[in-house]
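Practice problem 4.
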């Protein structure tokens, strides 16, 4: 059986490489009590990303996808594992050493209402990160803000407005312009459209795709909604209870999911063709606690195909087809020489 690292061998143009990333949070009794356990929020996540690529990271709420994004941005210190950014290990860098990378790694968060300073005017919100990282005059910063406003579909006359004067979609455009101000290479988009109306979601996703082409950006696109991820991702990683259980290109994932959890998630995505039918798979049972993840396969308590082996033996990630990785006992890697 071919056991491989999740994600497989990284190509030469790798931008980001994450290996065996873990983030555990202590559980305390009372405010100052001793730690009585740990939440295994991220528990051995590995993947790589190429320059210009969009990797979708999907799973239910609490699966560790946002924590993974925050660890990569170094908003959280990983418990263990490595994060290589353009060949340089950054997971333990201090504030000063991390500064040049902060500029290249930007974020767009879910809630545009809370991620923008309500007392700043839009032009200053966009120009602020630029002035933090570059010696630019106020006029130059404003000029860049005006350029980015146009790029994200806002009007120059809105530069003097405050965040509360924008609609939800416009506020998210403002957040995107702010992230773009320092010319990042990777943007971690953490549920960037889930707080928006459905009609506005498509506009923002299309905008992100246009900006990617214009600026050569890479996105780590964190979302619980597979339908959103389908439109923008080149590859998709599916997370369950702190681990990646399936990783492949978008087409393979949506046409031929290999992990029972992915199958269940996909069965809930509406099909555009009214004649086409998709059998809905309803998962029973609660998501187990990340404080005490179940032994064996973490999905076995909800998996309709679980067998005895699943309860005791953790499945390893296997490459079941070229570029298609899955961690499930039911899926086997093809025999040597059978994958060409
Ligand atoms: Fe289901 Fe077993 Fe596969 Fe886990 S290893 S997904 S429990 S069949």
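Answer key:
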């Amino acid at each position: 059986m071919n056991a491989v690292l999740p994600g497989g061998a990284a190509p030469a143009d790798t931008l980001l490489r994450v290996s065996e990333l873990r983030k555990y949070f202590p559980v305390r009794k009372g405010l100052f009590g001793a730690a009585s356990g740990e939440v295994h929020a991220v528990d051995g996540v590995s993947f790589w990303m190429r320059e210009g690529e969009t990797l979708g990271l999907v799973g239910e709420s609490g699966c560790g996808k946002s924590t993974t994004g925050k660890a990569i941005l170094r908003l959280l210190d990983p418990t263990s594992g490595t994060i290589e950014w353009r060949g340089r290990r950054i997971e333990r860098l201090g504030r000063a050493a991390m500064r040049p990378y902060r500029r290249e790694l930007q974020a767009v968060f879910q809630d545009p209402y809370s991620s923008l300073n309500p007392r700043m005017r839009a032009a200053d919100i966009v120009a602020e990160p630029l002035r933090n990282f570059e010696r630019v005059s106020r006029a130059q910063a404003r000029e860049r803000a005006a350029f980015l406003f146009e790029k994200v579909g806002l009007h120059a006359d809105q530069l003097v407005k405050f965040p509360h004067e924008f609609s939800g979609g416009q506020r998210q455009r403002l957040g995107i312009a702010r992230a773009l101000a320092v010319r990042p290479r990777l943007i971690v988009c953490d549920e960037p459209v889930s707080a928006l109306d459905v009609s506005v979601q498509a506009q923002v996703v299309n905008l992100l795709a246009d900006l990617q082409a214009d600026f050569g950006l890479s996105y780590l696109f964190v979302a619980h909604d597979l339908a959103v991820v389908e439109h923008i991702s080149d590859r998709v990683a599916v997370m369950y209870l702190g681990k990646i259980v399936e990783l492949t290109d978008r087409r393979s994932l949506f046409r031929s999911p290999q992990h029972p959890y992915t199958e269940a998630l996909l069965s809930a995505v509406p099909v555009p063709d009214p004649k086409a039918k998709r059998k809905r798979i309803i998962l029973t049972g609660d998501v187990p606690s990340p404080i005490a993840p179940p032994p064996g396969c973490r999905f076995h308590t909800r998996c309709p195909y679980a067998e005895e082996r699943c309860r005791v033996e953790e499945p390893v990630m296997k490459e079941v087809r070229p570029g298609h990785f899955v961690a499930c006992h039911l899926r086997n890697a093809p025999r040597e020489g059978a994958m060409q």
